[in-house]
Amino acid sequence: MLALAAGALGGAEPRPAPGMIRVPAGVHRPLVRSITDAAEVPVAAFDLDVLPVTNARFLEFVLANPRWARSRVKRLFADGAYLARWAGDHELGSNAPPDAPVTDVSWFAAKAYAQWRGARLPTLAEWEYAALASPTGPNGAQDPEFRARLLRWYSTPDDAPGRVGQGTPNYWGVHDLHGLIWEWVSDFNNSLVTGDARGDGGLERDLFCGAGAAGARDPSDFPAFMRYGFRSSLKASYTVHNLGFRCARDPAPTPR
């Protein structure tokens, strides 16, 4: 009774929104960094979608925000393959099952969806920190079976993604961070220091090509290198047949 009263007065920590789970604070160790970058990036506690955003959920967004319909979206915000699997503006069709993750969505579209939900895209550090967890522990790098499963998926040709939530959740209770689709993060374009001119003296050239492995945290982490390279190839308007997203949110302040 006393505990219930304390919760009613605001002593209990607010719970994540439905469909989200609280990932506790921790540390992200970047795969590749320059000599001036920190070896560890603190990650505050955050809420994360248990599942990737599905076609059905994204359709709700499109119906509420007509400018994001396939035939109406501006090419500045999504390329010509936007929602290519859908049968029409408001029709999913057989190639886009409602309980499969939405793909062929740009970063702009994913960000707009997240804002519509009162959320945001996870940062690279948050996503990598959450995705490091295996089903049995917070650090999957120490789980040979988990690493072998990731290698099999990253080295297998892509098929149409199946239904969300069919596998075993990771240690935090999050599904499908691996083995289904790639996912947008808010700061995907921070993966590399970039420059247009070949003579650009501001480039961190040790971060490019094979030199990146020399200073890598774990040169044997092939899946992390795959994600690193994939993100570095993206632009915010790109859409990819196996690229989707999920939402994150900062925990609500504890009432006083």
Short description:
The protein is 22% helix and 8% strand. The protein is α+β, with helices and mostly antiparallel strands.
Any overview of this molecule?
The chain is α+β, with helices and mostly antiparallel strands. The protein has one domain (2-249): paralog of FGE (formylglycine-generating enzyme). It is 22% helix and 8% strand. The protein is built from six helices and seven strands; from the N terminus they run αββββααααβαββ. The chain has a three-stranded antiparallel beta sheet with strand order 1-4-7, with no helix packed on it. Strands 2-3 form a two-stranded antiparallel ribbon. A two-stranded parallel ribbon has the order 5-6. Helix 6 links the parallel strand 5 and strand 6 (243-244). It is globular. Residues 1-10 and 192-216 have low confidence and may be disordered.
Q: What letter string, H or E per element, gives the SSE order? A: HEEEEHHHHEHEE
Overall 3D shape: globular
Largest sheet geometry: 3 strands, antiparallel
How helical, in percent, are the residues?
10-25%
What's the CATH topology name? paralog of FGE (formylglycine-generating enzyme)
Number of helices: 6
What's the count of strands? 7
CA distance, first residue to last residue: 19 Å
- Known CATH architecture: Alpha-Beta Complex
Question: In the residues, how many domains can be counted?
Answer: 1
- CATH top level class name: Alpha Beta
Strand content: 5-15%
Spatial ordering of strands, largest sheet: 1-4-7
Report low-confidence residues grouped into runs of 5 or more.
Answer: 1-10, 192-216
- The residue-averaged pLDDT reads 83
Gyration radius from CA atoms, angstroms: 19 Å
Q: Structural class of the helices, strands and pairings?
A: alpha+beta
